[in-house]
Amino acid sequence: MDNGNYGKITQVIGSTLDAQFAQDRMPKIYSALQLEVERTVLGETTRETLWCEVAQHLGGGQIRAIALGSTDGVKRGAKILDTGQPVTVPVGKETLGASSTSSVNRSTTEGRFRRWNDDRSTMIRRISAT
Fold it and tell me: 60 and 107: one domain?
């Protein structure tokens, strides 16, 4: 991820955030952005991935994005990565009745998920427990 297109958070208001990117490397509208956030609750610090989606180009390299989770702990100046891909979610018979985060890190159902790419999109399937 070190060679990726990184920007910096400039403003956070509720579930929206603004970020500054190089003007010639602005993320496209609907691109997924990835941000690592440290949160401390009751003395316990956790590190989580926050996914965002680019909603608007503000000009001068500035973008406005919608967070797909809590923005608690997001700080101005934090690095944010443009994935260059749209937000994707698992679909299909295998995921019916399952509940997962936007990054498919957790699920309320038993079993694991496997990710693979085809020429159209990222697909995620549930692997039966053995």
Answer: no
